[in-house]
Amino acid sequence: MYNNNSLSMWLKYLEKIDKTIIFNLNELKSIAKKLNLLNFKEFIFTVAGTNGKGTTCAMLETLLLKSGYKVGLYTSPHLISYLERVRINGSILNEEQHISSFKYIELVRCSTVLSYFEFITLAALMLFKQYSLDVIILEVGLGGRLDATNIIDSDLSIITNIGIDHTYILGKNRFSIAREKSGIFRKNKISVIGEKNIPDSMNQIAKEKKTILKKINKDWSWNKKNNHWNFIHSNIELHGLPLTHIPLSNTAIALSALYYAGFKITEEVVRKSISTVNLPGRFQIISTFPYIIVDVAHNPHASLYLFKKINNLNLTGKIYALVGFLKDKDITGIINPFKNTINYWYAAPLQTNRTATIEQLKKFLPSDNTLVLNSIYESYKIIRISLKKQDAILIFGSFLTVSEFISAKNIEDNVNISKI
Protein backbone atom coordinates (compact mmCIF):
# COMPACT_ATOMS: atom_id res chain seq x y z
CA MET A 1 0.00 0.00 0.00
CA TYR A 2 1.29 3.42 -0.95
CA ASN A 3 1.73 5.87 1.93
CA ASN A 4 3.16 9.35 1.51
CA ASN A 5 2.62 12.76 3.07
CA SER A 6 3.34 14.73 -0.10
CA LEU A 7 0.41 15.68 -2.34
CA SER A 8 2.64 15.96 -5.41
CA MET A 9 3.98 12.43 -4.81
CA TRP A 10 0.45 11.10 -4.39
CA LEU A 11 -0.60 12.63 -7.70
CA LYS A 12 2.43 11.12 -9.45
CA TYR A 13 1.55 7.77 -7.91
CA LEU A 14 -2.06 7.98 -9.11
CA GLU A 15 -0.91 8.84 -12.61
CA LYS A 16 1.41 5.83 -12.55
CA ILE A 17 -1.25 3.30 -11.50
CA ASP A 18 -3.89 4.90 -13.75
CA LYS A 19 -5.95 2.59 -15.92
CA THR A 20 -6.85 4.50 -19.06
CA ILE A 21 -9.81 2.48 -20.36
CA ILE A 22 -12.97 2.25 -18.27
CA PHE A 23 -15.62 -0.26 -19.32
CA ASN A 24 -17.98 -0.14 -16.35
CA LEU A 25 -18.42 1.38 -12.91
CA ASN A 26 -19.08 -1.81 -10.95
CA GLU A 27 -15.70 -1.97 -9.22
CA LEU A 28 -15.81 1.73 -8.42
CA LYS A 29 -19.32 1.38 -6.96
CA SER A 30 -18.16 -1.55 -4.87
CA ILE A 31 -15.39 0.51 -3.27
CA ALA A 32 -17.69 3.52 -2.88
CA LYS A 33 -20.19 1.30 -1.06
CA LYS A 34 -17.48 0.18 1.40
CA LEU A 35 -16.65 3.83 1.99
CA ASN A 36 -20.34 4.74 2.44
CA LEU A 37 -20.15 7.17 -0.46
CA LEU A 38 -23.17 6.20 -2.52
CA ASN A 39 -25.87 7.96 -0.51
CA PHE A 40 -25.88 11.65 0.30
CA LYS A 41 -28.49 13.66 2.15
CA GLU A 42 -27.48 16.77 0.21
CA PHE A 43 -29.17 17.89 -3.01
CA ILE A 44 -26.96 16.73 -5.89
CA PHE A 45 -26.44 18.55 -9.19
CA THR A 46 -24.56 16.65 -11.91
CA VAL A 47 -23.32 18.80 -14.80
CA ALA A 48 -22.33 17.30 -18.17
CA GLY A 49 -21.74 18.73 -21.63
CA THR A 50 -19.01 19.24 -24.21
CA ASN A 51 -18.26 22.82 -23.12
CA GLY A 52 -19.40 25.20 -20.42
CA LYS A 53 -19.51 22.75 -17.52
CA GLY A 54 -17.02 24.65 -15.38
CA THR A 55 -18.68 28.04 -15.81
CA THR A 56 -22.14 26.54 -15.22
CA CYS A 57 -20.89 24.96 -11.99
CA ALA A 58 -19.29 28.24 -10.92
CA MET A 59 -22.57 30.10 -11.47
CA LEU A 60 -24.53 27.46 -9.54
CA GLU A 61 -22.04 27.66 -6.67
CA THR A 62 -22.07 31.47 -6.49
CA LEU A 63 -25.85 31.87 -6.56
CA LEU A 64 -26.34 29.16 -3.94
CA LEU A 65 -23.68 30.60 -1.62
CA LYS A 66 -25.05 34.12 -1.99
CA SER A 67 -28.47 32.71 -1.06
CA GLY A 68 -27.16 31.22 2.18
CA TYR A 69 -26.75 27.57 1.21
CA LYS A 70 -23.73 25.45 2.16
CA VAL A 71 -22.14 24.12 -1.01
CA GLY A 72 -19.56 21.52 -2.04
CA LEU A 73 -18.13 21.68 -5.57
CA TYR A 74 -16.12 19.05 -7.46
CA THR A 75 -14.78 20.22 -10.80
CA SER A 76 -12.12 19.29 -13.33
CA PRO A 77 -9.59 19.67 -14.74
CA HIS A 78 -7.64 22.09 -12.61
CA LEU A 79 -5.77 24.98 -14.17
CA ILE A 80 -2.82 25.53 -11.83
CA SER A 81 -3.24 23.47 -8.66
CA TYR A 82 -4.95 20.16 -7.92
CA LEU A 83 -6.50 21.85 -4.88
CA GLU A 84 -8.81 23.77 -7.26
CA ARG A 85 -10.84 20.60 -7.87
CA VAL A 86 -12.68 20.57 -4.53
CA ARG A 87 -14.24 23.57 -2.85
CA ILE A 88 -16.27 23.77 0.33
CA ASN A 89 -18.36 26.91 0.65
CA GLY A 90 -16.22 28.62 -1.96
CA SER A 91 -12.85 27.76 -0.39
CA ILE A 92 -10.23 25.17 -1.30
CA LEU A 93 -9.03 22.65 1.27
CA ASN A 94 -5.47 22.09 2.42
CA GLU A 95 -3.16 19.38 1.12
CA GLU A 96 -3.37 17.37 4.35
CA GLN A 97 -7.12 16.89 3.93
CA HIS A 98 -6.68 15.57 0.39
CA ILE A 99 -3.83 13.28 1.42
CA SER A 100 -5.88 11.86 4.28
CA SER A 101 -8.69 10.88 1.90
CA PHE A 102 -6.18 9.38 -0.57
CA LYS A 103 -4.70 7.19 2.16
CA TYR A 104 -8.06 5.85 3.25
CA ILE A 105 -9.14 5.01 -0.30
CA GLU A 106 -5.80 3.32 -0.93
CA LEU A 107 -6.37 1.17 2.16
CA VAL A 108 -9.88 0.15 1.12
CA ARG A 109 -9.31 -0.45 -2.60
CA CYS A 110 -6.77 -3.25 -1.93
CA SER A 111 -5.92 -4.79 -5.32
CA THR A 112 -8.68 -3.06 -7.29
CA VAL A 113 -7.19 -0.85 -9.99
CA LEU A 114 -8.80 2.57 -10.32
CA SER A 115 -8.25 5.24 -12.92
CA TYR A 116 -6.79 8.56 -11.79
CA PHE A 117 -10.20 10.22 -12.12
CA GLU A 118 -12.03 7.40 -10.32
CA PHE A 119 -9.61 7.64 -7.40
CA ILE A 120 -9.82 11.42 -7.02
CA THR A 121 -13.62 11.36 -7.41
CA LEU A 122 -13.88 9.02 -4.43
CA ALA A 123 -11.52 11.35 -2.57
CA ALA A 124 -13.75 14.34 -3.31
CA LEU A 125 -16.84 12.49 -2.14
CA MET A 126 -15.04 11.53 1.07
CA LEU A 127 -14.20 15.17 1.70
CA PHE A 128 -17.83 16.19 1.19
CA LYS A 129 -18.89 13.63 3.81
CA GLN A 130 -16.83 15.51 6.39
CA TYR A 131 -18.93 18.66 6.12
CA SER A 132 -22.55 19.56 6.75
CA LEU A 133 -23.68 20.73 3.31
CA ASP A 134 -26.96 21.57 1.62
CA VAL A 135 -25.84 21.07 -1.96
CA ILE A 136 -23.14 19.16 -3.85
CA ILE A 137 -22.25 20.08 -7.44
CA LEU A 138 -20.48 17.39 -9.47
CA GLU A 139 -18.89 18.26 -12.80
CA VAL A 140 -18.69 15.26 -15.13
CA GLY A 141 -15.13 14.61 -16.26
CA LEU A 142 -15.83 12.91 -19.59
CA GLY A 143 -19.10 11.84 -21.18
CA GLY A 144 -21.52 10.79 -18.48
CA ARG A 145 -22.60 7.15 -18.56
CA LEU A 146 -19.21 5.73 -17.55
CA ASP A 147 -17.86 8.78 -15.75
CA ALA A 148 -16.88 8.27 -12.13
CA THR A 149 -19.31 10.96 -10.95
CA ASN A 150 -22.18 8.84 -12.30
CA ILE A 151 -22.01 6.44 -9.36
CA ILE A 152 -23.99 9.13 -7.51
CA ASP A 153 -27.70 9.51 -8.22
CA SER A 154 -28.24 13.20 -8.79
CA ASP A 155 -31.42 15.05 -7.90
CA LEU A 156 -31.14 17.18 -11.02
CA SER A 157 -28.83 16.79 -14.00
CA ILE A 158 -27.67 19.35 -16.53
CA ILE A 159 -26.38 18.91 -20.07
CA THR A 160 -24.97 22.19 -21.38
CA ASN A 161 -24.44 21.22 -25.02
CA ILE A 162 -23.45 18.40 -27.39
CA GLY A 163 -20.29 18.91 -29.46
CA ILE A 164 -17.68 16.65 -31.00
CA ASP A 165 -14.91 15.77 -28.55
CA HIS A 166 -13.32 12.66 -26.97
CA THR A 167 -14.49 10.68 -30.02
CA TYR A 168 -12.18 7.75 -29.22
CA ILE A 169 -14.31 7.05 -26.13
CA LEU A 170 -17.71 8.68 -26.70
CA GLY A 171 -18.21 7.98 -30.40
CA LYS A 172 -17.61 9.87 -33.61
CA ASN A 173 -20.95 11.64 -34.00
CA ARG A 174 -23.39 13.70 -31.94
CA PHE A 175 -25.87 10.81 -31.75
CA SER A 176 -23.34 8.61 -29.91
CA ILE A 177 -21.96 11.44 -27.78
CA ALA A 178 -25.46 12.50 -26.71
CA ARG A 179 -26.23 8.91 -25.74
CA GLU A 180 -23.16 8.78 -23.49
CA LYS A 181 -23.93 12.12 -21.85
CA SER A 182 -27.54 11.05 -21.29
CA GLY A 183 -26.22 8.30 -19.03
CA ILE A 184 -26.55 10.77 -16.12
CA PHE A 185 -30.35 10.80 -16.48
CA ARG A 186 -32.33 9.42 -13.53
CA LYS A 187 -35.88 8.10 -13.26
CA ASN A 188 -38.51 10.74 -12.50
CA LYS A 189 -35.80 13.38 -12.08
CA ILE A 190 -35.44 16.61 -14.03
CA SER A 191 -32.62 17.15 -16.51
CA VAL A 192 -32.13 20.68 -17.81
CA ILE A 193 -30.90 20.71 -21.42
CA GLY A 194 -29.08 23.67 -22.94
CA GLU A 195 -28.51 22.06 -26.34
CA LYS A 196 -30.84 23.54 -28.97
CA ASN A 197 -30.45 20.71 -31.49
CA ILE A 198 -30.98 17.56 -29.44
CA PRO A 199 -29.97 14.26 -31.10
CA ASP A 200 -32.69 11.59 -31.11
CA SER A 201 -30.59 9.40 -28.81
CA MET A 202 -31.09 11.84 -25.95
CA ASN A 203 -34.86 11.82 -26.30
CA GLN A 204 -34.82 8.01 -26.54
CA ILE A 205 -32.85 7.55 -23.33
CA ALA A 206 -34.96 10.13 -21.50
CA LYS A 207 -38.04 8.15 -22.49
CA GLU A 208 -36.48 4.83 -21.43
CA LYS A 209 -35.37 6.22 -18.06
CA LYS A 210 -38.54 8.28 -17.55
CA THR A 211 -36.43 11.39 -17.11
CA ILE A 212 -38.17 14.76 -17.25
CA LEU A 213 -36.40 16.93 -19.81
CA LYS A 214 -36.57 20.71 -19.51
CA LYS A 215 -35.37 22.01 -22.87
CA ILE A 216 -34.13 25.40 -23.93
CA ASN A 217 -36.57 27.39 -26.09
CA LYS A 218 -39.35 25.03 -25.08
CA ASP A 219 -39.51 25.06 -21.28
CA TRP A 220 -37.14 27.97 -20.63
CA SER A 221 -35.25 30.53 -22.70
CA TRP A 222 -33.07 33.61 -22.70
CA ASN A 223 -32.37 36.47 -25.09
CA LYS A 224 -29.85 39.29 -25.24
CA LYS A 225 -30.91 42.90 -25.81
CA ASN A 226 -28.00 45.33 -26.32
CA ASN A 227 -26.40 45.79 -22.87
CA HIS A 228 -28.76 43.52 -20.92
CA TRP A 229 -30.56 40.19 -21.25
CA ASN A 230 -33.80 38.48 -20.28
CA PHE A 231 -34.46 35.08 -18.71
CA ILE A 232 -37.81 33.35 -19.21
CA HIS A 233 -38.74 30.35 -17.06
CA SER A 234 -41.98 28.64 -16.13
CA ASN A 235 -41.43 29.68 -12.50
CA ILE A 236 -40.09 33.21 -13.02
CA GLU A 237 -39.29 35.90 -15.59
CA LEU A 238 -36.31 38.21 -15.15
CA HIS A 239 -35.87 41.17 -17.47
CA GLY A 240 -33.04 43.65 -17.90
CA LEU A 241 -30.40 41.46 -16.26
CA PRO A 242 -26.77 42.66 -16.26
CA LEU A 243 -24.38 41.01 -18.71
CA THR A 244 -21.99 38.39 -17.37
CA HIS A 245 -18.31 37.57 -17.82
CA ILE A 246 -19.11 33.93 -18.54
CA PRO A 247 -21.31 32.92 -21.51
CA LEU A 248 -24.94 33.94 -21.03
CA SER A 249 -25.99 30.46 -22.17
CA ASN A 250 -24.27 28.93 -19.14
CA THR A 251 -25.64 31.57 -16.78
CA ALA A 252 -29.14 30.85 -18.08
CA ILE A 253 -28.89 27.08 -17.73
CA ALA A 254 -27.63 27.46 -14.15
CA LEU A 255 -30.55 29.74 -13.32
CA SER A 256 -33.00 27.35 -14.95
CA ALA A 257 -31.63 24.39 -12.97
CA LEU A 258 -31.83 26.28 -9.67
CA TYR A 259 -35.44 27.29 -10.23
CA TYR A 260 -36.49 23.80 -11.34
CA ALA A 261 -34.76 22.41 -8.24
CA GLY A 262 -36.86 24.69 -6.06
CA PHE A 263 -34.06 26.66 -4.41
CA LYS A 264 -34.94 30.09 -3.09
CA ILE A 265 -32.81 32.36 -5.22
CA THR A 266 -34.16 35.89 -5.05
CA GLU A 267 -34.14 38.30 -7.95
CA GLU A 268 -31.94 40.62 -5.91
CA VAL A 269 -29.29 37.92 -5.48
CA VAL A 270 -29.38 37.14 -9.19
CA ARG A 271 -28.97 40.77 -10.23
CA LYS A 272 -26.13 41.42 -7.77
CA SER A 273 -24.25 38.15 -8.24
CA ILE A 274 -24.26 36.94 -11.84
CA SER A 275 -21.78 39.54 -13.08
CA THR A 276 -19.28 38.61 -10.34
CA VAL A 277 -18.67 35.07 -11.68
CA ASN A 278 -15.44 34.95 -13.66
CA LEU A 279 -13.58 31.66 -14.12
CA PRO A 280 -9.81 31.81 -14.80
CA GLY A 281 -8.73 30.68 -18.24
CA ARG A 282 -12.09 31.36 -19.88
CA PHE A 283 -11.50 34.27 -22.28
CA GLN A 284 -9.32 35.81 -19.61
CA ILE A 285 -7.83 39.13 -20.68
CA ILE A 286 -4.50 39.46 -18.89
CA SER A 287 -3.38 42.63 -20.66
CA THR A 288 -4.84 45.13 -23.14
CA PHE A 289 -1.76 47.01 -24.45
CA PRO A 290 -0.90 44.64 -26.03
CA TYR A 291 -3.81 42.25 -25.65
CA ILE A 292 -2.86 38.98 -23.97
CA ILE A 293 -5.82 36.60 -23.87
CA VAL A 294 -5.88 33.05 -22.54
CA ASP A 295 -8.65 30.55 -23.16
CA VAL A 296 -8.86 26.81 -22.50
CA ALA A 297 -10.71 26.15 -25.80
CA HIS A 298 -9.69 22.63 -26.80
CA ASN A 299 -12.35 21.43 -29.26
CA PRO A 300 -14.03 22.89 -32.38
CA HIS A 301 -17.17 24.00 -30.52
CA ALA A 302 -15.20 26.01 -27.96
CA SER A 303 -12.81 27.32 -30.61
CA LEU A 304 -15.65 28.74 -32.69
CA TYR A 305 -17.02 30.54 -29.61
CA LEU A 306 -13.54 31.95 -28.92
CA PHE A 307 -13.24 33.10 -32.54
CA LYS A 308 -16.48 35.09 -32.23
CA LYS A 309 -15.28 36.71 -28.99
CA ILE A 310 -12.00 37.73 -30.64
CA ASN A 311 -13.84 39.22 -33.62
CA ASN A 312 -15.94 41.35 -31.27
CA LEU A 313 -12.78 43.05 -29.97
CA ASN A 314 -12.14 44.68 -33.38
CA LEU A 315 -8.39 44.33 -33.01
CA THR A 316 -6.29 46.64 -35.19
CA GLY A 317 -2.84 45.06 -34.90
CA LYS A 318 -1.33 41.69 -35.67
CA ILE A 319 -2.69 38.59 -33.89
CA TYR A 320 -0.19 36.02 -32.64
CA ALA A 321 -1.53 32.59 -31.69
CA LEU A 322 0.38 30.63 -29.04
CA VAL A 323 -0.95 27.07 -29.07
CA GLY A 324 -0.36 23.57 -27.77
CA PHE A 325 -2.65 20.57 -28.18
CA LEU A 326 -3.18 17.06 -26.95
CA LYS A 327 -2.57 14.50 -29.69
CA ASP A 328 -6.05 12.97 -29.46
CA LYS A 329 -7.82 16.28 -30.18
CA ASP A 330 -9.27 17.51 -33.47
CA ILE A 331 -6.46 19.99 -34.10
CA THR A 332 -7.70 20.88 -37.58
CA GLY A 333 -11.17 21.60 -36.22
CA ILE A 334 -9.75 23.77 -33.42
CA ILE A 335 -7.62 25.99 -35.67
CA ASN A 336 -10.00 26.23 -38.66
CA PRO A 337 -12.03 29.26 -37.43
CA PHE A 338 -8.81 31.28 -37.07
CA LYS A 339 -7.07 30.46 -40.37
CA ASN A 340 -7.89 33.84 -41.91
CA THR A 341 -7.54 35.79 -38.67
CA ILE A 342 -4.23 34.75 -37.10
CA ASN A 343 -1.19 36.46 -38.60
CA TYR A 344 1.45 34.30 -36.93
CA TRP A 345 1.22 30.87 -35.31
CA TYR A 346 3.61 29.80 -32.55
CA ALA A 347 3.29 26.26 -31.22
CA ALA A 348 5.00 23.93 -28.80
CA PRO A 349 4.53 20.45 -27.31
CA LEU A 350 2.97 20.35 -23.85
CA GLN A 351 4.48 18.86 -20.71
CA THR A 352 2.56 15.60 -20.87
CA ASN A 353 2.93 12.29 -22.68
CA ARG A 354 -0.43 13.02 -24.33
CA THR A 355 0.92 16.05 -26.18
CA ALA A 356 0.89 16.58 -29.91
CA THR A 357 4.53 16.31 -30.98
CA ILE A 358 6.57 18.89 -32.87
CA GLU A 359 6.08 16.82 -36.03
CA GLN A 360 2.30 16.69 -35.54
CA LEU A 361 2.11 20.41 -34.88
CA LYS A 362 4.00 21.13 -38.11
CA LYS A 363 1.63 18.83 -39.97
CA PHE A 364 -1.59 20.53 -38.83
CA LEU A 365 -0.61 24.21 -38.62
CA PRO A 366 -0.22 26.50 -41.67
CA SER A 367 3.26 26.04 -43.10
CA ASP A 368 3.83 29.61 -44.27
CA ASN A 369 3.38 31.48 -40.97
CA THR A 370 4.09 28.93 -38.22
CA LEU A 371 7.05 28.52 -35.91
CA VAL A 372 7.22 25.41 -33.71
CA LEU A 373 9.45 25.64 -30.64
CA ASN A 374 10.24 23.46 -27.64
CA SER A 375 7.98 25.03 -24.99
CA ILE A 376 5.09 27.42 -24.46
CA TYR A 377 7.32 29.77 -22.49
CA GLU A 378 10.05 29.79 -25.16
CA SER A 379 7.41 30.59 -27.77
CA TYR A 380 6.11 33.49 -25.68
CA LYS A 381 9.59 34.96 -25.32
CA ILE A 382 10.08 34.89 -29.09
CA ILE A 383 6.70 36.53 -29.74
CA ARG A 384 7.54 39.38 -27.38
CA ILE A 385 10.49 40.42 -29.53
CA SER A 386 8.18 41.55 -32.36
CA LEU A 387 5.09 42.44 -30.31
CA LYS A 388 3.68 45.97 -30.57
CA LYS A 389 1.13 47.65 -28.28
CA GLN A 390 -1.69 47.36 -30.81
CA ASP A 391 -1.04 43.64 -31.31
CA ALA A 392 -2.58 40.65 -29.52
CA ILE A 393 -1.45 37.24 -28.29
CA LEU A 394 -4.07 34.53 -28.07
CA ILE A 395 -3.07 31.50 -25.98
CA PHE A 396 -5.37 28.47 -26.42
CA GLY A 397 -5.66 24.81 -27.45
CA SER A 398 -5.72 23.04 -24.09
CA PHE A 399 -6.07 23.55 -20.36
CA LEU A 400 -2.38 22.63 -20.22
CA THR A 401 -1.44 25.33 -22.72
CA VAL A 402 -3.01 27.98 -20.50
CA SER A 403 -1.65 26.38 -17.34
CA GLU A 404 1.91 26.29 -18.65
CA PHE A 405 1.68 29.90 -19.77
CA ILE A 406 0.30 31.15 -16.45
CA SER A 407 2.70 29.02 -14.43
CA ALA A 408 5.80 30.13 -16.33
CA LYS A 409 8.45 31.62 -14.07
CA ASN A 410 10.59 34.70 -14.65
CA ILE A 411 8.58 35.99 -17.61
CA GLU A 412 10.38 39.18 -18.62
CA ASP A 413 7.52 41.59 -19.07
CA ASN A 414 5.24 43.79 -17.04
CA VAL A 415 2.37 41.31 -16.78
CA ASN A 416 2.16 39.89 -13.26
CA ILE A 417 1.17 36.39 -14.33
CA SER A 418 1.63 34.92 -10.85
CA LYS A 419 -1.32 36.90 -9.47
CA ILE A 420 -3.89 35.98 -12.10
Walk me through the structure.
It holds the Pfam family Mur_ligase_M. Belongs to the folylpolyglutamate synthase family. Keywords: ATP-binding, Folate biosynthesis, Ligase, Magnesium, Metal-binding, Nucleotide-binding. This is Dihydrofolate synthase/folylpolyglutamate synthase. GO terms for molecular function: ATP binding; dihydrofolate synthase activity; metal ion binding; tetrahydrofolylpolyglutamate synthase activity. This protein is 36% helix and 18% strand. The C terminus is likely disordered. It is an alpha/beta fold and 420 residues long. The protein has 15 helices and 17 strands. It is globular and about 55 Å long. The longest helix is centred in the N-terminal third of the chain and has 15 residues. It has an eight-stranded mixed sheet with strand order 4-3-2-5-1-6-7-8, with helices on both faces. It has two domains: 270 residues, Mur-like, catalytic domain (UDP-N-acetylmuramoyl-L-alanine:D-glutamate ligase, 3-Layer(aba) Sandwich), CATH 3.40.1190.10; 136 residues, Protein-Tyrosine Phosphatase, Chain A, CATH 3.90.190. Strand 12 and strand 13 form a beta hairpin.
Summarize the structure.
The protein has 15 helices and 17 strands.
Structural class: alpha/beta
Rg is 21 Å
Helix content: 25-40%
The biggest sheet, with number of strands, parallel, antiparallel or mixed sense and barrel status, is:
8 strands, mixed
Distance between the termini: 38 Å
Query: What is CATH's topology name of the largest domain?
Result: UDP-N-acetylmuramoyl-L-alanine:D-glutamate ligase
Number of domains: 2
How many helices? The count is 15
Total number of strands: 17
Q: DSSP strand (E) fraction?
A: 15-25%
Instruction: Name the strands of the widest sheet in spatial order.
Output: 4-3-2-5-1-6-7-8
Supply the CATH class of the largest domain.
Alpha Beta
Shape: globular
Family: Belongs to the folylpolyglutamate synthase family.
Keywords: ATP-binding, Folate biosynthesis, Ligase, Magnesium, Metal-binding, Nucleotide-binding
Protein name: Dihydrofolate synthase/folylpolyglutamate synthase
GO molecular function: ATP binding; dihydrofolate synthase activity; metal ion binding; tetrahydrofolylpolyglutamate synthase activity
